[in-house]
Amino acid sequence: MSIYLHKHHIVPKHAGGTDDSSNLVELTIEDHAIAHKVLYGLYGRWQDRCAWEGLSNMVGREQIIAESMAKAKRFKGGNHTDKAKAKISAANKGKKLSEETKSKIADANKGKKLSEETREKLRVVNKGKKLSEETKRKLSKSLKGKTKSEEHKAKIAAANKGKNKGKTPWNKGRKCT
Question: Using CB atoms within 10 A of its CB, is residue 39 exposed (0-12), middle (13-18) or buried (19+)?
Fold first, then answer.
């Protein structure tokens, strides 16, 4: 029978530790959980509690992610370095979120306004991408019955001003019905 070993940071990365081999030790899952429980008892860091509870199967992955995101925003204002963002992105590639987690994230972001910088980044990333029929249906359904403010209508008109929308040689001058 083989025993599965985890690499444990003697000084955790969240406490300034590195990936240097002198800061790593191999532990069984149980010992790894105990190490984080001891660290939590000594220093009271929420990251060690999350690691301990996750390794002990006391809480699920999604709960740990949700709590970590909430704590990180509270303590750091939600700002990550580009390097940290890249690591987070790489770690989450290919992972699927449950509908419950997606709903919690959506609820947490309701009413938040995106900065102009973020909006521009989204424009660049999404430029030329086509929406799937399913996404179009969902958008349509979510917008049913909602009215646009005069300010919103004015912004849409300004954004479309000068665009050759629908004026092709075969329908020149025709109105869409």
Answer: buried
Per-residue pLDDT tens listing for the chain (177 residues) = 568 899 999 999 888 889 999 999 999 999 999 999 999 999 888 889 989 999 998 988 888 888 877 776 655 445 667 787 788 788 888 888 888 888 888 888 888 888 899 889 888 888 888 888 988 888 888 888 888 889 888 988 888 887 766 555 555 555 554
How far apart, in Å, are the Cα atoms of 147 and each of 43, 102, 115, 122, 136? 52, 26, 24, 24, 18
Distances (CA, A) of 90 to 31, 47, 84, 94: 27, 20, 10, 9
Between the alpha carbon of residue 162 and those of residues 136, 144, 149, the distances in Å are: 25, 28, 22
On whether the CB atoms of residues 9 and 17 are closer than 8 A, the answer is: yes
The pTM for the full model equals 0.41
Reading the block at residue 6, the tokens are 């985890």
Strands (E), the chain: 5-9, 24-28
Q: Give me the phi and psi of 44, to 5 degrees please.
A: 70, 25
